[in-house]
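Sample intake sheet
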Amino acid sequence: MRLWSLAPTYLDSKGLGAVWREGLLAQAVLLGRTKGWRRHSQLLRFQVHEEPLKAIGFYLRHIHDEAQSRGYRYDHLKIVAAVADVDAIAVTTGQLLYELRILKERLKKRSPNKFQDLLKRERREACPTPHPLFTVIDGTVEPWEKSYWRRQNTSGAVL
């Protein structure tokens, strides 16, 4: 499961579809509708939010909006709490840069055109743009991040 901190505009069609499905799974976990995934590290920041369902609803709403802008048909009725506003969640600059490295590696393999667009965008931005749910603070990669990518690339080198 990967609930990207990056703005959905960074994602290719496969990434956008995956984050939609994974966001809906996260919503099901927060609703107590599934026994699996309850302890997944990607859910922690939603679980500790004052209003977890509104936070994931806001997150999904922006994924849905990006999909709509690309002409995709995601069912907005699947979002339990599609709120227009919710308290932001802090995300570190290190986490955003870390996720950008992961995304670049994925796009390089499956979506070369989107990868090239991402490289151009990266040259223009000092720090990646976060999903609207998040507000950026200084810091390193989040401590809950346990993925394969972190273990493989502890040097901080750009993939």
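Comment: The first strand starts at residue 89 and ends at 92. Strands lie at 89-92, 134-137.
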